[in-house]
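Escalation from tier 1.

The customer reports that the assembly of two entities below gives different structure tokens on two consecutive runs. Tier 1 could not reproduce it. I'm attaching the input and our single run for tier 2 to review.
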Amino acid sequence: MLKSFKIGGVHPPENKYTAGCAIQVLPTPDKVIIPLSQHIGAPATAIVQKGDKVKAGQVIATAGGFVSANVHSSVSGTVLDVAPVKDAAGLLKPAITIQVEGEEWADEVVKTTKNIDEFEKEEIIKAISDAGIVGMGGATFPTHVKLSPPPGSKAEYLIINGVECEPYLTADHRLMLEKTNEIIAGIKLVMKAIGVNKAIIGIENNKPDAIAKMQAATTTTMGIDVCPLKVRYPQGGEKQLIKATIGRSVPSGALPIAVGAVVQNIGTIYAVYEAVMLRKPLVERVVTVTGESLKNPGNFLCKVGTPISKLIEAAGGLPEDTGKVIGGGPMMGRTMINIDSPVMKGTSGVLILPESKSARGEMHPCIKCAKCVSACPMGLEPYLLATITEMTGDLERLEKEKIMDCIECGCCMYTCPANRPLLDYIRLGKGRTGAMIRNRSQKK
Amino acid sequence: MNILLITIISLCAIGVLSAIILFLVAKKFKVEEDPRIDTVCELLPGANCGGCGFPGCRGLAEAAVKADTLDGIMCPVGGATVMEQIAAALGREVVAQAPKVAVVRCNGSCSNRPRTSKFDGARSCAIMASVYGGETDCSYGCLGCGDCVSACQFGAIAMNPETGLPVVDDEKCVACGACVKACPKMVIELRNKGPKNRRLYVSCINKDKGGIARKACSAACIGCSKCVKECAFDAIKVENNVAYIDFNKCKLCRKCAAVCPTGAIKLVNLAPLPPTPPAPKAAPAQPAEKPAAN
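Tier 1 run:
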């Protein structure tokens, strides 16, 4: 019996077309756009100006607060502009545009001669912070903050998220196959940084090759286990993964550290390896470009700041029947209306869905079938949350109904036979309730 | 028979006793309140819309009684008449305030602003705004889902199906500001109603540079500053590529509207100026709108 989280969840068609496609390196584009806010928290502050020469790996914007991350140039060249650029949603966001010239790396990007065991805890966290690493599964929470648990809490387990439960996406899968040893080294570094001697790699059972490869690589290492998991969305949700691997439930409103767990994504772990061992900041990532009608779907290693349109070009161009271009997976990703927007640290995939698959079904009234309640992995009542938001907007009631626990996985909307836009309303209600709670705590 | 008597007597006794207790408690814990608050409260319309900025009509009444002057206190629903009555009841001066009305600062009708994408989520401006910039290339303008319509308690806003934009009914609008709060794009503004309901305003808040704004919407303000040069009263400012007319300084001369190359300045109940004969260059484009109720 495979391990899994206990309540809710759905099993959408997996559609992992690119699982067998080796990671290809995408040629550096002529121009990159590097947004200043690629992470949750305060945007970074630009430290370069128009006309400045920059090298790849050079810091071009420094963290704008504690929960924030440095931003580095992914290419060498000249800064064309430090000005707002339209993002994937068509909204202006501050960014640095760089014209690519040559391929020169900053001097500090050199392979270290040190062994993994020789690193001190603080040294690792400092390297991660300097490299501007954020959670690369999509949440983009600055990693150095996550690795510095608040005083009084103690991590017991490091859980590695190799689940990749989103349909279509295969970036983490390919990383596990192609960079196995680097990932193991990264895990050791993170274990050292948070002072734990137990790490569990959670991998969904639809990636048997990755499970076998990771198991083979960890047989000789103490303390790192591979845990095959049932294929069930959202197995890769932080709280679901903790429940599945170590059987602990994170209480409502608490962080994983409350049950002694720290969860890191495979992509993040690989970035940690590069940051510590190669002194290379987070300037490139693997992006899955996929979709039914795409000619050459694949996994591409591309520079942060590469326009999405270049990726689509490399994958065979935008098909004619395109309905939606989605940043991320089909369940949690967001539709992009501007494909000239750049790849960011959190862009795990670009999914191109044909019109026939992407359009939402016709909405009907709720028939109170409670399928959404059964599907919710957080044990909430999605229909109720959506109705309260839509009808009364009673935020205190929403708070009581634990709307802040919603992980926005989209299971409710996926399962709804009446095609209710449940998550649309829940996100709205969650945003407003969150604002109310922040206001209240500020007043106190 | 006996039981009946006992029941009646005992129930009466309980009733009298409770009445005495209630009376004593009410006496003991009586909250001293200015009786004028009730008087003012009765004068107010009782819509409890919150448009005055106080928590409901009683909130305004309390504030009005407490404050020394009625300056800054205004019931948008009742308007000047109600404020006069309140002033008389409290023996204070009436502070005249120009009546206001909500205006929709977007000209992005279906013909002016082509749709470039289709939003298939829940029809709510708040939700659409949280997802992306909107169905057109203009990420500032009206989203057209009608959050303002549902926010209005007075039935003063309706969507025009032809333009896809909300229309405010001057007669019904009480300037409570509910629509201003409901609009996630801050398209709606409360402006002075103007003499005889005549007013003009820049019907665009697009902060993009001229070319980009114009490409997204043919009636966008492109921040060209022609209106600023034309204005003799220093009422117009261009900030972030968009012009804004200060309604306190504007004298309704309409010269700005005559020179606006995109017709972004909207005239309400005002006829456009006739084309100026001694124009040095080609005659500027005339705004297409007819004077209509907003």
